[in-house]
Amino acid sequence: MPYQFEDLKKSCHSEWRAYIEHSFVAQLGDGSLAPEAFQHYLKQDYLFLIQFARAFALAAYKSPTLSDLRQAKEGLQAILDVELDLHINYCKEWGISEQELANLPEARATIAYTRYVLDAGNRGDLLDLHVALSPCMVGYGEIANWLNSRAVTKRGDSNPYDAWIAMYESDEFQQAMHAEIRWLDDRLADVSPARFSELTRIFSDATRLEIDFWEMGLKQSD
Ligand SMILES: Cc1ncc(CO)c(N)n1
Protein backbone atom coordinates (compact mmCIF):
# COMPACT_ATOMS: atom_id res chain seq x y z
CA MET A 1 0.00 0.00 0.00
CA PRO A 2 1.49 3.37 -0.96
CA TYR A 3 1.53 5.96 1.82
CA GLN A 4 -0.73 8.99 1.69
CA PHE A 5 -1.07 12.26 3.59
CA GLU A 6 -3.96 10.69 5.52
CA ASP A 7 -1.44 8.17 6.98
CA LEU A 8 0.59 11.03 8.51
CA LYS A 9 -2.55 12.18 10.32
CA LYS A 10 -3.30 8.62 11.46
CA SER A 11 0.26 8.28 12.82
CA CYS A 12 -0.49 10.97 15.44
CA HIS A 13 -4.27 10.89 15.57
CA SER A 14 -4.71 12.21 19.12
CA GLU A 15 -2.26 15.12 18.60
CA TRP A 16 -3.96 16.00 15.31
CA ARG A 17 -7.42 16.10 16.96
CA ALA A 18 -5.99 18.11 19.90
CA TYR A 19 -4.73 20.68 17.37
CA ILE A 20 -7.89 20.86 15.21
CA GLU A 21 -10.32 20.86 18.16
CA HIS A 22 -8.23 22.96 20.57
CA SER A 23 -10.21 25.10 23.02
CA PHE A 24 -8.80 28.26 21.36
CA VAL A 25 -10.50 27.07 18.15
CA ALA A 26 -13.75 26.04 19.88
CA GLN A 27 -13.97 29.41 21.68
CA LEU A 28 -13.26 31.23 18.43
CA GLY A 29 -16.14 29.30 16.88
CA ASP A 30 -18.73 30.07 19.54
CA GLY A 31 -17.50 33.64 19.96
CA SER A 32 -16.49 33.23 23.62
CA LEU A 33 -12.73 33.73 23.13
CA ALA A 34 -11.24 36.66 25.09
CA PRO A 35 -10.43 39.49 22.63
CA GLU A 36 -7.02 39.93 24.32
CA ALA A 37 -6.17 36.29 23.57
CA PHE A 38 -7.15 36.76 19.92
CA GLN A 39 -5.12 39.98 19.65
CA HIS A 40 -2.09 38.26 21.16
CA TYR A 41 -2.52 35.41 18.67
CA LEU A 42 -2.88 37.85 15.73
CA LYS A 43 0.34 39.64 16.65
CA GLN A 44 2.30 36.40 16.91
CA ASP A 45 0.74 35.13 13.70
CA TYR A 46 2.19 38.17 11.90
CA LEU A 47 5.63 37.06 13.07
CA PHE A 48 4.76 33.48 12.13
CA LEU A 49 3.85 34.55 8.57
CA ILE A 50 7.22 36.24 8.09
CA GLN A 51 9.03 33.00 8.97
CA PHE A 52 6.52 31.07 6.87
CA ALA A 53 7.56 33.22 3.89
CA ARG A 54 11.21 32.34 4.62
CA ALA A 55 10.24 28.66 4.59
CA PHE A 56 8.93 29.08 1.02
CA ALA A 57 12.18 30.77 0.07
CA LEU A 58 13.94 27.71 1.51
CA ALA A 59 11.58 25.50 -0.54
CA ALA A 60 12.77 27.35 -3.65
CA TYR A 61 16.40 26.66 -2.69
CA LYS A 62 15.56 22.99 -2.05
CA SER A 63 13.67 22.57 -5.33
CA PRO A 64 15.12 19.89 -7.64
CA THR A 65 12.84 20.72 -10.60
CA LEU A 66 11.62 23.82 -12.40
CA SER A 67 8.05 22.95 -11.47
CA ASP A 68 8.93 22.75 -7.75
CA LEU A 69 10.83 26.03 -8.04
CA ARG A 70 7.80 27.74 -9.60
CA GLN A 71 5.50 26.32 -6.91
CA ALA A 72 7.78 27.67 -4.15
CA LYS A 73 7.85 31.09 -5.84
CA GLU A 74 4.02 31.15 -6.06
CA GLY A 75 3.81 30.29 -2.35
CA LEU A 76 6.28 33.01 -1.37
CA GLN A 77 4.46 35.53 -3.58
CA ALA A 78 1.04 34.61 -2.12
CA ILE A 79 2.32 35.16 1.43
CA LEU A 80 4.10 38.43 0.69
CA ASP A 81 1.55 40.03 -1.67
CA VAL A 82 -1.74 38.68 -0.32
CA GLU A 83 -1.65 37.02 3.12
CA LEU A 84 0.59 39.51 4.90
CA ASP A 85 -1.35 42.50 3.50
CA LEU A 86 -4.63 40.90 4.56
CA HIS A 87 -3.18 40.15 7.97
CA ILE A 88 -1.90 43.70 8.48
CA ASN A 89 -5.33 45.14 7.55
CA TYR A 90 -7.11 42.62 9.76
CA CYS A 91 -4.82 43.53 12.69
CA LYS A 92 -5.74 47.22 12.15
CA GLU A 93 -9.42 46.32 12.58
CA TRP A 94 -8.46 44.75 15.91
CA GLY A 95 -6.64 47.90 17.00
CA ILE A 96 -3.10 46.68 16.25
CA SER A 97 -1.10 49.17 14.16
CA GLU A 98 1.56 48.35 11.58
CA GLN A 99 4.04 50.20 13.79
CA GLU A 100 3.21 47.90 16.72
CA LEU A 101 3.57 44.81 14.50
CA ALA A 102 6.99 45.95 13.30
CA ASN A 103 8.32 46.11 16.87
CA LEU A 104 6.91 42.95 18.42
CA PRO A 105 9.06 40.51 20.36
CA GLU A 106 8.58 36.89 19.29
CA ALA A 107 6.90 34.60 21.80
CA ARG A 108 8.81 31.41 22.62
CA ALA A 109 6.11 29.27 21.00
CA THR A 110 6.49 31.26 17.76
CA ILE A 111 10.26 30.86 17.76
CA ALA A 112 10.00 27.14 18.56
CA TYR A 113 7.51 26.37 15.82
CA THR A 114 8.90 28.47 12.98
CA ARG A 115 12.56 27.60 13.58
CA TYR A 116 11.65 23.93 13.86
CA VAL A 117 10.10 24.06 10.39
CA LEU A 118 13.10 25.88 8.92
CA ASP A 119 15.50 23.41 10.55
CA ALA A 120 13.54 20.36 9.31
CA GLY A 121 13.81 21.83 5.80
CA ASN A 122 17.50 22.68 6.17
CA ARG A 123 18.43 19.21 7.46
CA GLY A 124 16.25 17.37 5.02
CA ASP A 125 14.93 17.66 1.49
CA LEU A 126 11.89 19.32 -0.06
CA LEU A 127 9.59 16.53 1.17
CA ASP A 128 10.74 16.97 4.80
CA LEU A 129 10.06 20.69 4.49
CA HIS A 130 6.58 20.19 3.00
CA VAL A 131 5.71 17.66 5.72
CA ALA A 132 6.82 20.20 8.35
CA LEU A 133 4.63 22.86 6.69
CA SER A 134 1.59 20.64 6.16
CA PRO A 135 0.01 21.04 9.63
CA CYS A 136 -0.30 24.78 8.88
CA MET A 137 -1.37 24.47 5.27
CA VAL A 138 -3.86 21.66 5.83
CA GLY A 139 -4.76 22.17 9.49
CA TYR A 140 -6.31 25.64 9.19
CA GLY A 141 -8.54 24.53 6.30
CA GLU A 142 -9.64 21.52 8.33
CA ILE A 143 -10.26 23.76 11.35
CA ALA A 144 -12.62 25.99 9.34
CA ASN A 145 -14.50 22.90 8.12
CA TRP A 146 -14.64 21.41 11.63
CA LEU A 147 -16.05 24.68 13.00
CA ASN A 148 -18.68 24.75 10.26
CA SER A 149 -19.72 21.19 11.14
CA ARG A 150 -20.55 22.16 14.75
CA ALA A 151 -23.99 23.39 15.78
CA VAL A 152 -22.45 25.60 18.51
CA THR A 153 -20.37 27.57 15.99
CA LYS A 154 -21.80 31.05 15.42
CA ARG A 155 -21.50 32.64 12.01
CA GLY A 156 -22.17 36.22 10.90
CA ASP A 157 -22.27 39.44 12.91
CA SER A 158 -23.02 37.65 16.18
CA ASN A 159 -19.47 36.25 16.18
CA PRO A 160 -16.57 38.76 16.32
CA TYR A 161 -14.31 36.05 14.85
CA ASP A 162 -16.48 35.33 11.81
CA ALA A 163 -14.01 36.91 9.35
CA TRP A 164 -11.24 34.61 10.60
CA ILE A 165 -13.34 31.51 9.88
CA ALA A 166 -14.33 32.96 6.49
CA MET A 167 -10.68 33.36 5.48
CA TYR A 168 -9.88 29.68 5.99
CA GLU A 169 -13.12 28.34 4.51
CA SER A 170 -12.54 30.48 1.35
CA ASP A 171 -12.17 28.67 -1.98
CA GLU A 172 -8.68 30.10 -2.27
CA PHE A 173 -7.44 28.58 0.99
CA GLN A 174 -9.33 25.31 0.51
CA GLN A 175 -7.84 24.92 -2.99
CA ALA A 176 -4.32 25.59 -1.71
CA MET A 177 -4.94 22.96 0.98
CA HIS A 178 -6.07 20.35 -1.57
CA ALA A 179 -3.13 21.16 -3.87
CA GLU A 180 -0.76 20.58 -0.94
CA ILE A 181 -2.42 17.24 -0.08
CA ARG A 182 -2.14 16.13 -3.74
CA TRP A 183 1.54 17.13 -3.86
CA LEU A 184 2.22 15.15 -0.67
CA ASP A 185 0.18 12.12 -1.82
CA ASP A 186 2.27 11.98 -5.03
CA ARG A 187 5.57 12.04 -3.12
CA LEU A 188 4.53 9.79 -0.22
CA ALA A 189 3.46 7.05 -2.64
CA ASP A 190 7.15 6.32 -3.33
CA VAL A 191 8.67 6.33 0.18
CA SER A 192 9.89 3.30 2.15
CA PRO A 193 8.53 2.39 5.60
CA ALA A 194 11.75 3.68 7.21
CA ARG A 195 11.48 7.01 5.40
CA PHE A 196 7.79 7.27 6.26
CA SER A 197 8.63 6.74 9.88
CA GLU A 198 11.10 9.70 9.77
CA LEU A 199 8.41 11.85 8.18
CA THR A 200 5.84 10.95 10.86
CA ARG A 201 8.25 12.32 13.48
CA ILE A 202 8.42 15.68 11.67
CA PHE A 203 4.65 15.74 11.16
CA SER A 204 3.83 15.00 14.79
CA ASP A 205 6.44 17.52 16.06
CA ALA A 206 4.96 20.26 13.87
CA THR A 207 1.44 19.32 15.00
CA ARG A 208 2.48 19.50 18.67
CA LEU A 209 4.03 22.92 18.01
CA GLU A 210 0.72 24.10 16.46
CA ILE A 211 -0.99 23.02 19.71
CA ASP A 212 1.55 25.11 21.66
CA PHE A 213 0.80 28.06 19.36
CA TRP A 214 -2.91 27.90 20.38
CA GLU A 215 -1.87 27.55 24.04
CA MET A 216 0.35 30.61 23.66
CA GLY A 217 -2.67 32.56 22.36
CA LEU A 218 -5.01 31.39 25.12
CA LYS A 219 -2.53 32.12 27.91
CA GLN A 220 -1.13 35.21 26.19
CA SER A 221 2.31 33.86 26.97
CA ASP A 222 5.47 35.49 25.68
C1 LIG B 1 0.31 29.28 13.43
C2 LIG B 1 -0.34 29.24 12.09
N1 LIG B 1 -0.53 28.06 11.49
C3 LIG B 1 -1.12 28.00 10.28
C4 LIG B 1 -1.55 29.15 9.64
C5 LIG B 1 -2.24 29.08 8.31
O1 LIG B 1 -1.54 29.72 7.32
C6 LIG B 1 -1.32 30.38 10.29
N2 LIG B 1 -1.70 31.55 9.73
N3 LIG B 1 -0.73 30.39 11.52
TrEMBL record:
A Pfam entry, by short name: TENA_THI-4
Reactions mediated catalytically: 4-amino-5-aminomethyl-2-methylpyrimidine + H2O = 4-amino-5-hydroxymethyl-2-methylpyrimidine + NH4(+); thiamine + H2O = 5-(2-hydroxyethyl)-4-methylthiazole + 4-amino-5-hydroxymethyl-2-methylpyrimidine + H(+)
InterPro entries in UniProt: Haem_Oase-like_multi-hlx, Thiaminase-2/PQQC, Thiaminase_II, Thiamine_Salvage_TenA
Top-level division of the source organism's lineage: Bacteria
Biological process terms in GO annotation: thiamine biosynthetic process; thiamine diphosphate biosynthetic process
Keywords from the named record: Hydrolase, Thiamine biosynthesis
Alphabetized GO MF terms: thiaminase activity
Involved pathway(s): Cofactor biosynthesis; thiamine diphosphate biosynthesis
Every Thiaminase-2/PQQC domain range: 14-218
EC number: 3.5.99.2
Gene3D superfamilies for the chain: Heme oxygenase-like (1.20.910.10)
GO cellular component term of the entry, any: cytosol
Family according to the record: Belongs to the TenA family.
Function text: Catalyzes an amino-pyrimidine hydrolysis reaction at the C5' of the pyrimidine moiety of thiamine compounds, a reaction that is part of a thiamine salvage pathway.
Protein name: Aminopyrimidine aminohydrolase
GN (gene name): tenA
